[in-house]
Amino acid sequence: MEAAVTEETIARQPPEAQAIIRLLLAKIAELEARIEELQRQAKGKTPQNSSLPPSTQHPHARPQPPRRKSKRKRGGQPGHEKHERPLIPSEDCNRVEPLKPTECRRCGEKLSGSDPEPLRHQVWELPEIKPHVTEYQRHRLTCRCCGETTCAELPVGVPQGQSGPRLMAFVALLMAYYRQSKRRTAEFLGTLLGQPCCPALTVKMQNQVTTALRSSYEALAAQLPAQEQLSIDETGTKEENGKAWLWTFVARMFTVFAVRATREATALTTLLGEQFRGIVNCDRAKMYWHLGCLQWCWAHLKRDFQAMIDSGDSRAKHLGCRLRRATCELFEHWADYRAGKISRAALLRRMGPVRRKVECLLLRGTQSGNSDVRGTCRELYEHRQWLWMFLRHEGVEPTNNAGERSLRHAVIWRKLSFGTQSAGGSRFVETMLTVIETCRQQRRNVFAFLTHAVEAHLAHQPAPSLLAGV
After folding, report:
1. How many domains, the chain?
2. In which domain, by residue range, is 308 found?
3. N or C terminus of the chain with fewer C-beta within 10 Å?
């Protein structure tokens, strides 16, 4: 392009064409400069020194820590404690078969009697799985008096369709908890359970389960504005091939997921309200800043300091090393506190020098000649109160690990399903993720809860609550 388009070539063109050519050349130069800048910014970025997700880096590309090769063989070592499944009581077995020898293994003499303590060997096996089908025969009778026909109604709680509550709950779990596609779910039901099913039927059951759970979900979401502390995070997803965001809000005894079309602060305001005053564990994304009372995640900060080390600037590397060393010291003290090795007072006493060191280094970094380092340090120093909220309020963590852990299952599910194809699919995702994670936190059986919710919905009764212990 540059070799073909010269000033002489341009001069031979009409004035209108000359203007268009010069405009296009200027735009090309601007785009090339932008590409160079983006390549420079992306160069050297890894999940260890940026917010890139770990899945963007191939496992074999990650640097392995140097360690000496062990001389021990793989597997259990001689003398290790034996692990085996304990035997269940004999009366709980479906069948007990006594086995008695008929003759002596040495002389062949016939044997009789019983061993008071026989050797017990138990074999576990799956029973043959057959669907339990109930047929309701609705008789239509004619009145002898007026000739009107009347058909019997289905009992309360019997679904209009052919899928019972346990089957609906099981299908929802297969898709949401075990991350199976609708086609594979239908194939599993037909192949292993003998239950005729097609992908369209799984969608129908998905919608029924969402409806059954929705009131429980909304009651839980209504509790978010009243929480004293939340861990919040978000990840990108898709809805109808458009961009969307999956938010997670982790409280002490429950978790709420929400799929929204935006990552802006308006999504937070919708769910938390205008007057939310709780403490929020989060990363440094600016949509959280209006909440006012934040605890920035030190795991994210550690990656920011690693980025300084990897920047190639010797002064930035020196500053990043010192900040990273202080961060490791912080985590050591916090680990001792979490393990019960030190008291809360001892934690605060140990963290005093760490805090002064970090703030002094950040202040020094605000005068750095590296613009990226200067911007990061200025932002951290100006909002340094958000670095130490975990010291002022007991029960607040220095990281946002709770939020990131809650998203892990959702991210894997999204990678397998490529998001949702409708708003109804998004409601299923956020509702099921909320129920699954909340039941895990409350140590409740998620399958039992789903079955109970569907049964209540079919019987036109109130849905079970997820607010236990909240």
Report:
1. 1
2. 298-399
3. N
